[in-house]
Amino acid sequence: MAVFTAASFLFCLLCIRVTVAKYEPNWESIDSRPLPEWYDQAKFGIFIHWGVFSVPSFGSEWFWWYWQGQRREPYVTFMHKNYPPDFKYQDFAPHFTAEFFDAKEWMDIFAASGAKYIVLTTKHHEGFTLWGSETSWNWNAVDLGPKRDLVAEVASAVRAHSDLRLGLYHSLFEWFHPLFLQDAANHFATNRFALAKSLPELYELVLTYKPDVLWSDGDGDAPDKYWNSTGFLAWLYNDSPVRDTVVTNDRWGLGSICKHGGYYTCADRYQPGHLLPHKWENCMTIDTKSWGYRRNAPLADYLTIEEIVETLVETVSCGGNLLMNVGPTADGRIAPIFEERLRQIGRWLRVNGEGVYNSSAWRAQKDTVTSGVWYTSRPRQNAVFAFFLVWPTDGILLLGEPELAPGQTQQNQVVLVGHGPVKWEPAKPSGIRVFLPQLSISQMPCQWAWTLRLTGAK
């Protein structure tokens, strides 16, 4: 594995190009880069929020900020009841042990979910890095806690799975870093933190681990010029070892979200409900109240598999990717409820994945007659896919959007995916009426939502 030094970072900044750069350090040029095709085809990824916040595992991964930044009552009370008065957030770090962490086991679970990429939080806003960062001395997983390079272990395990790609999350700012606080007090007229801490980490992550997704977050209300985002992205797209495959998001400074970058996230749990003109991603959580693991989470706070499937088909129908988050425990386990949801969505995708992976948005995203029906297409196969979330009680599904010429032929066919061809007829004034087969529970192709493949739909 390549060793990154401060000298190599300086070289990256000062190296002289012998050829003309394809992408210039401005948003017009950066935004002109085509999105690598693999990302749109993948459709589904897994987010992993893991760090020192996994030790208290109370309330939220924003525990430190809510406890000492905002002094929120539940967090202050929790600390008062359970820890001595002089306890500091840094004292949690030795208990971030990861003794049960097995990267191969994680990737087996994620691969079973049907995900095509994972995004690991290498550093959240607390500043603790999951690798031995040169700029995060004594506040990283190699010096404290696990005393292991967790990013390296994840990267190696990902690459052992041919169907998975590596993504790395990195927070630009840190809540309580003195250099960032000083820059903020100067209204970001100075950028000591960006140059000494954040940018070296970004170069280090790319050069050492070579991710296919670089997921930036946490601008701290500082503009992209403070972070030198366009300069870094120009290097990433022109000269980095992942320049041809890497995908980036839109969180590169105040005002860049939903406006600049490889694909848009716009907001956490973003779901526009309609087709967008730019590729986007819905990053969301199985635990609806937190990205990090919570010991105090009640069952009602976890999404059901029905809700997850619905979120996935709506996202893909509207042209987005779904990035679904799990929060591991401080000792490195994927909690059983997360594993169950992951394996459930994987079973669903094994049946219905042909309408998800490599699909495109159709002319209509949802049906205009029957609610709970979403569409995708695969033009090369002359196929349209209709996902329906509720099995009609009378077995007849009315679809208002598709139109098929009369006649049951190979070129004019409706198939219940995982089962076989089904009868249909044109409906008036438009659409088709599908006669679903009478199936026992054991004969159902899947349990939670179903897919029709329409061949020859206009």
TrEMBL record:
UniProt keywords, alphabetically: Glycoprotein, Glycosidase, Hydrolase, Signal
Coiled-coil regions listed: none
Entry GO terms, CC: lysosome
Lineage top rank: taxon: Eukaryota
Residues with site note (May be important for catalysis): C283
Molecular-function GO term, any one: alpha-L-fucosidase activity
A biological process term (GO) from this entry: glycoside catabolic process
Domain Alpha-L-fucosidase C-terminal: 365-455
Enzyme nomenclature, EC number: 3.2.1.51
Signal peptide: 1-21
Role description: Alpha-L-fucosidase is responsible for hydrolyzing the alpha-1,6-linked fucose joined to the reducing-end N-acetylglucosamine of the carbohydrate moieties of glycoproteins.
Protein name: Alpha-L-fucosidase
Gene source species: Hippocampus comes (Tiger tail seahorse)
